[in-house]
Design a protein that fits this description.
disordered C terminus; Rossmann fold; 13 strands; 6-stranded mixed sheet; elongated; 13 helices; EC 1.8.4.10; about 425 residues; single chain; TIM Barrel
Length: about 425
């Protein structure tokens, strides 16, 4: 008897829905990949299922199955801007060979690249952040359009994938389908040969698992097929995948963006400063002002993007000549009642004409934000949930009456504009 289609889940995971996933996993033989895919596309999530493909070494197998089930199924390819030229050619080869009619390339936001990776070398020092802005972030809004999506993951690839089922109920209440979960490397090769599928041009040269060019290397005889991915790093996943118990990575939609800038919560490239960080190699951290002063020459010689952290009691005047070095200046507000950060922000904006990002961190609440903006703060790290909702819903209070003007254009209450003294 056919299992009924799973209805959309409420916000929290539903026990009956979870039981339905268990039943789905009991319906198919381990090697019935085409059956899994067909049932997912026609019974479980008809019209609500997408495929994500890397067009790598093994991709032809899953995409051939897609062509057998429905060649019009949407297939999304993450065009990170870092792929081998051979991979881009392979995309066109498979589209034509398999008759796929709905292959869509997803690109990272040009603004994110310009801001976070302007030189294109972020992969060298922070591959996790590189993957985030080039893969995870662009893919997230796409997956939100579908009730489920199909991957080419397999149990043999990593220890974390060793318990991978055909169907997963993710913590963001979507269904992830893994038709090839039980396929071995030999099964993939046999299927490819049996159906005379085009081989990735780099496969014969020793590339057994193919991702972005900078982070992919040749695999030697006897090595694990994925040994060439992020070689030498403690990294196994790009971040877009996670198994049913969350062991591989957090669900994409569970990533909680806390940086509010330009009208939205966005990915924050900056990480917290850690004691002992080498000044010559630090990157995308807000360096505490006193730490910067103690090792100023090394920080100034560092070619990577840096921020500055100013806490109450510290004088931004002490780094007046170096402000242009920083891509972002974070001003700490330790408590709602501590207003010293406003003075720092006004100094940056009015005296020093600092044009970079000025962000407020710490106890940032909705009543403060309009006042912070008046002083030149243009980004806010917000943890307070009511404030987050107020920002999203554009419900911040207005500052219509004030007694201390900011800049040259504001007129304080109770004064006559024509009597204001020019600065």
């Amino acid at each position: 008897m056919a299992l009924p289609k799973l209805a959309p889940a409420p916000a929290a995971q539903d026990k009956l829905r979870a039981l339905g996933i268990l039943a789905l996993n009991g319906m198919f033989d381990e090697m019935d990949a085409v059956g899994v895919l067909r049932y997912a596309a026609t019974e479980v999530l008809p019209g609500d299922l997408a495929i994500v493909s890397s067009f790598g070494a093994d991709s032809a197998v899953l995409l051939h199955m897609v062509s057998q089930v429905d060649p019009s199924l949407p297939v999304y390819f993450l065009e990170t801007g870092k792929h081998f030229a051979e991979t881009l050619d392979y995309v066109e080869t498979l589209k034509q060979h398999l008759g796929l009619t709905n292959v869509v390339a997803i690109h990272p936001a040009s603004s994110d690249i310009a801001r976070f990776d302007p030189q294109g070398d972020l992969w060298e020092t922070d591959p996790d952040s590189c993957c985030f802005i080039r893969k995870t972030e662009p893919l997230e809004p796409v997956t939100e359009m579908f009730g489920g999506w199909v991957t080419g993951r397999k149990r043999y690839q990593t220890k974390e994938r060793g318990v991978l089922p055909h169907f997963e109920l993710t913590s963001d209440d979507r269904i992830k389908v893994n038709p090839l979960a039980y396929f071995s490397d030999a099964d993939v090769i046999e299927y490819r040969q049996q159906h005379n599928l085009p081989e990735h041009p780099l496969y014969a040269r020793g590339y057994r698992s193919i991702g972005c060019a900078p982070c992919t290397s040749i695999v030697s005889e006897g090595e694990d097929p994925r040994a060439g991915r992020w070689r030498g790093l403690n990294k196994k996943e790009c971040g877009i995948h996670y198994d049913f118990n969350g062991a591989i990575a957090k669900p994409m939609t569970a990533v909680r963006h806390t940086l509010w800038k330009d009208g939205a919560f966005i990915a924050d490239p900056f990480k917290a400063w850690e004691e002992g960080t080498d000044p010559s190699t630090a990157r995308y951290v807000h360096v505490p002002l006193q730490v910067f002063l103690a090792d100023r020459d090394a920080f100034l010689a560092n070619p990577h993007p840096l921020g500055l952290l100013v806490t109450p009691g510290e004088k931004v005047e002490d780094v007046e000549n170096d402000l242009g070095r920083f891509a972002s200046i974070a001003i700490r507000f330790p408590a709602f009642t501590d207003g010293r950060g406003y003075s720092t922000a006004r100094l940056l904006a009015e005296r020093y004409r600092y044009s970079g990002e000025v962000r407020a961190i710490g106890d940032v609440l909705q009543d403060q934000i309009p006042l912070m903006r008046r002083c030149g703060i243009n980004a806010f790290v917000v943890e307070h949930e009511p404030t987050r909702r107020a920002l999203i819903e554009n419900r911040l209070p207005e500052v219509a009456l004030f007694y201390q003007p900011v800049g040259l254009t504001e007129v304080p209450a109770g004064t006559r504009p024509f009597l204001r003294r020019a600065h």
